[in-house]
Specification:
It is built from three helices and five strands; from the N terminus they run E-H-E-E-H-E-E-H. It has 166 residues and is largely without helices or strands. It starts with 29 loop residues before the first strand and ends in a 10-residue tail after the last helix.
Length: 166
């Protein structure tokens, strides 16, 4: 469900990244971006009501958690990839829980395929046209929805030697 992580960005769980490793330049590397999804738990943070983390195999959950997960925020870090671009419709192939107790989600059959894992859910916004990102130098840039895929991927890499102008 979570999927593999990308390790060529600036924020990696338990893996400090120094500025000297940002060979693409901090002004040309994405740090964090806007994220919307199911305007409910994802907007306030994930929380489980029990007492322990789920069983894991190599860091990937293999069962249902029964308690707060201190690593949830880290596992919720999203990869930048060519599968789910900016403002990608989360109902199109993305992970969606089937719990609709609040009645605010569309009905999704249990057999509906989900090909985009949680780590690959798209960056997105509720305003039209694109998404705001903070760059490694602390500045903010607006990426339009139609940004070239290779440019988007290059901006997410800290050391890919790509030349990017946006």
């Amino acid at each position: 469900m979570l999927g593999p992580n990308n390790y060529d960005g600036l924020l990696i769980m338990d893996w400090p990244v120094s500025f000297r490793e940002v060979t693409d330049g901090s002004t040309k590397t994405l740090l964090i971006g806007e994220r919307t999804y199911q305007i409910r738990a994802w907007m306030i943070g994930a929380y489980w009501t029990g007492k322990s983390d789920p069983p894991q195999v190599r860091g990937q959950a293999t069962g249902t958690p029964d308690g707060p997960q201190p690593t949830t925020a880290f596992f919720a870090c999203k990869n930048v990839n060519d599968v789910a671009l900016l403002n990608h419709d989360p109902y199109d192939g993305c992970y969606i829980g089937h719990n609709n107790e609040m009645g605010d989600r569309p009905t999704v059959g249990d057999s509906t395929p989900r090909t985009i894992s949680v780590n690959n859910l798209p960056f997105g916004s509720l305003h039209p046209g694109g998404v705001n990102f903070c760059l490694g130098d602390g500045s903010v840039t607006f990426l339009e929805e139609g940004v070239d895929v290779m440019t988007y991927l290059a901006l997410a890499s800290r050391n890919g030697d790509e030349i990017v102008s946006h």
